[in-house]
Amino acid sequence: MMVMADTDVRGRLLINASMARYSSWRAGGRAAQLFIPADMKDLVKFITALEPQVALYFVGLGSNLLVRDGGLDGVIVRLAPGLTSLSLGEPGIVRAQAGVAAPKLARFATSCQLGELAFMVGIPGSVGGALAMNAGCYGSTTWQFVHQVTLLTRAGELLNVPAYEFKAGYRCVSHPDYRQALFVEAKFKLDATQSVDTDTTEQIMREREKTQPIGTANAGSVFVNPPNESAGRLIESAGLAGYQIGAAQISPMHCNFIVNLGGASAADIENLIEHARSVVFAKFAIELKLEVKILGKKS
Question: How would DSSP label each residue in the chain?
Answer without folding.
Answer: --S-TT----SEEEEEEEGGGGSTT----EEEEEEE-SSHHHHHHHHHHS-TTS-EEEESSSTTEEE-TT-EEEEEEE-TTTS--EEE-STTEEEEETTSBHHHHHHHHHHTT-GGGGGGGG--SBHHHHHHHT-EETTEEGGGSEEEEEEE-TTS-EEEEEGGGSEEETTEEE-TT-SS-EEEEEEEE--TTS---TTHHHHHHHHHHHHS-TTSEE-S--EEPPTTS-HHHHHHHTT-TT-EETTEEE-SS-TT-EEE-SS--HHHHHHHHHHHHHHHHHHH--PPEESSEEES---
